[in-house]
Design a protein that fits this description.
Blueprint: E1 2-6, E2 10-16, H1 21-24, E3 41-47, H2 49-59, E4 65-70, H3 75-84, E5 91-93, E6 100-106, E7 112-117, E8 135-140, H4 145-157, E9 162-164, H5 175-184, E10 187-191, H6 192-202, H7 206-210, E11 216-220, E12 226-230, E13 233-237, H8 251-265, H9 269-283
Parallel strand pairs: 1-4, 1-8, 2-6, 4-5, 8-9, 9-10, 10-11
Antiparallel strand pairs: 2-3, 6-7, 11-12, 12-13
Helix pairs in contact: 2-8, 5-6, 8-9
């Protein structure tokens, strides 16, 4: 059986500025802003929510199927995905475009300036959810706006249970659209900030949302773990203490991969979330969203 991952594939170009933005940007001159930052260190990482989720899921021993788009520059990413043993059959290449790219500059205070080019992701709606009996569960992760709307409707029509994981894409949708996602989903996964926005825009509480057809709402809380809402009741799943935080990029995606793994295995949601906390904690010790090593003995802990 496979998990279908609908979301973005992207390249992350990450640079470090060995100073403070606050010392280079004059507040009274913002209307004529023209600054240049010398960045001695630069690295490029494979990223995007779908790619990050699929990486951890494959490392857990599952066989994820990614439905996403890349541009004419995406061949290296496709080869990388194939090296995990994951399927690329549903990844569409859009000619004459770039793969989605995030260009991130971080200063010594961990402030960030990010430019995001959606590129091929804007055409993700051209792909349709397959009617594949091997697909047991799916996730709608951040992607093009129309793609997220259409893929949620297609999954519901195909009776494939899915996690609604709006992430940074949540502000793109109004209350009615968000209620439509929740009505079709089997689970909802958000961080604490997104949970507040979801409640504000839908006019519902987590308690009321969970006291419905939903099999669970998962609210991640960073180092504090996560809250599970089921049938109107909240359960706290404690976080995992880490010795050092190297890079939090992709931590939420690693958590969601473990959540998908547990659901696919038929585990209770709490056990799946416990694994999610463990894999998320493991990920923060590595740079990038796809470089951590998962010891499958974690599954028995």
């Amino acid at each position: 059986m496979s998990a279908l991952i609908c979301g973005s594939l992207a390249f992350d170009t990450i640079a470090t500025f060995p100073g403070r933005f606050a010392q280079q940007i004059l507040p009274e001159q913002l209307h004529i802003l023209n600054v240049s930052f010398l960045v001695p260190t630069l690295r490029r990482e494979f990223g995007g929510c779908a790619g990050n989720i699929a990486y951890s899921l494959s490392r857990l021993g599952a066989q994820p199927m990614i439905m996403a788009t890349v541009g004419a520059d995406g061949a290296d990413y496709l080869r990388r995905i194939e090296s995990w043993g994951a399927s690329t059959a549903l990844i569409r290449t859009i000619p004459d475009t770039h793969t989605a790219q995030a260009i991130i500059i971080t200063d010594t205070d961990n402030n960030q300036i990010t430019a995001f080019h959606p590129g091929a992701m804007q055409s993700a709606h051209l792909s349709m959810v397959p009617t594949n009996a091997e697909i047991r569960v799916a996730i709608i992760a951040p992607d093009g706006r129309e793609a997220m709307l259409q893929h949620a409707a297609q999954l519901a029509q195909a009776n494939i249970p899915f996690i609604f994981d709006p992430g940074q894409g949540l502000p793109m949708f109004d209350g009615a659209e968000l209620r439509g996602f929740v009505d079709r989903a089997a689970w909802v996964a958000v961080n604490d900030y997104e949970a507040r926005m979801l409640c504000e825009r839908t006019g519902q509480t987590l308690e009321s949302m969970s006291n419905s057809h939903l099999r669970g709402i998962v609210v991640t809380l960073g180092a504090d773990g996560c809250d599970l809402w089921q049938r109107g009741e909240r359960t706290r799943v404690p976080g995992i203490r880490v010795d050092s935080i190297v890079d939090p990029t992709g931590c939420g995606d690693a958590f969601r991969a473990a959540l998908l793994y547990g659901i696919e295995q038929g585990w209770p949601l709490e056990r799946s979330a416990m694994l999610g906390n463990r894999i998320g904690a493991l990920k923060v010790g590595c740079r990038g969203g796809q470089n951590h090593v998962i010891d499958t003995r974690s599954l028995d802990a």
